[in-house]
Design a protein that fits this description.
CATH topology: Pnp Oxidase, Chain A
CATH architecture: Roll
Organism: Lysobacter korlensis
Number of helices: 5
Strand content: 35-45%
Subunit structure: Homodimer.
Structural class: alpha+beta
Distance between the termini: 28 Å
Function: Catalyzes the oxidation of either pyridoxine 5'-phosphate (PNP) or pyridoxamine 5'-phosphate (PMP) into pyridoxal 5'-phosphate (PLP).
Pathway: Cofactor metabolism; pyridoxal 5'-phosphate salvage; pyridoxal 5'-phosphate from pyridoxamine 5'-phosphate: step 1/1; Cofactor metabolism; pyridoxal 5'-phosphate salvage; pyridoxal 5'-phosphate from pyridoxine 5'-phosphate: step 1/1
Number of strands: 9
Number of domains: 1
Radius of gyration: 19 Å
Catalytic activity: pyridoxamine 5'-phosphate + O2 + H2O = pyridoxal 5'-phosphate + H2O2 + NH4(+); pyridoxine 5'-phosphate + O2 = pyridoxal 5'-phosphate + H2O2
Bound molecules: flavin mononucleotide, 4'-deoxy-4'-aminopyridoxal-5'-phosphate
Helix content: 25-40%
CATH class: Mainly Beta
Length: 199
């Protein structure tokens, strides 16, 4: 068992995340999440990292949108951060299995969102065909009336997804493409290993 290597990787992530903030990255929490459908078609989009700890990396979304459907059918994801302002440029790649966060955790995060964003989560049928912006704003107005004078509850199908890291790679840019890559990999028995990769 070498869980200390996982701790080392998570600590490295924390240091780089702080550096990204200090370096003035527009949004260090922005990450690309790649999913694959059951018929193995990949797709990618940007989401925001809302929580990370030893259990994994959490973002929030609709379960019935495209990524939500992909991840329920095939619960594996890849996350990608690119922070060009950190050091000579840093890229972090995280891959692993995905699980839905607890209702309590999702409720707690949803409660912190601006009311407008809470209402938007009710009004949006994520990834479905939208006939016009007018239709969307009518739905929003309907939702506003529905929740007038009371707290907006979390839509049941809007929740957090946690990527449990199985592979974490740190890529550090260097001159002449002589980049430095460190790959941390978790084994089936919970042991972690670490090695460098050619750039
Ligand atoms: C900077 C940025 C941050 C975003 N953050 C999120 C997010 O945290 N959750 C989310 O569902 N969509 C977020 N989006 C929208 C997604 O990129 C995407 O359009 C949406 O989730 C639908 O993706 P899907 O059809 O693959 O499910 C964000 C977009 C951008 C550009
Ligand atoms: C559709 C959607 N859902 C969720 C989020 C997550 O971020 P927040 O909770 O800060 O709105 C975003 C961020 N852009 C988003 O666009």
């Amino acid at each position: 068992m070498t869980p200390e290597l996982l701790e080392e990787a998570l600590a490295t992530f924390a240091v780089l995340f702080d550096e990204a903030r200090a370096a003035g990255e527009p949004d260090p929490t922005a990450m690309v999440v790649a999913t694959a459908s059951l018929d193995a078609r990949p797709s990618a989009r940007t989401v925001l990292l809302k929580h990370h700890d030893a259990r994994g990396f959490v973002f929030y979304t609709h379960l019935d949108g495209r990524k939500g459907r992909d991840l329920q059918a095939n619960p594996h994801a890849a996350l990608l951060f690119h922070w060009p302002r950190v050091r000579e440029g840093v890229q972090v790649r995280i891959e692993g299995g995905v699980e839905i966060v607890s209702d309590d955790e999702a409720d707690a995060y949803f409660a912190t969102r601006p009311r407008g964003s809470q209402l938007g989560a009710w009004a949006s049928i994520q990834s479905e065909t939208l006939e016009s912006r007018e239709v969307f704003f009518e739905r929003l107005a309907h939702v506003e009336r529905e929740f007038e004078g009371r707290d907006v509850p979390r839509p049941m199908r809007w929740t957090g997804l946690r990527v449990r890291p199985e592979r974490i790679e740190f890529w550090y840019g260097a001159a002449y493409r002589l980049h430095e890559r460190w790959l941390y990999e978790g084994g089936l028995a919970g042991e972690w290993s670490k090695r460098m990769l050619y750039p």
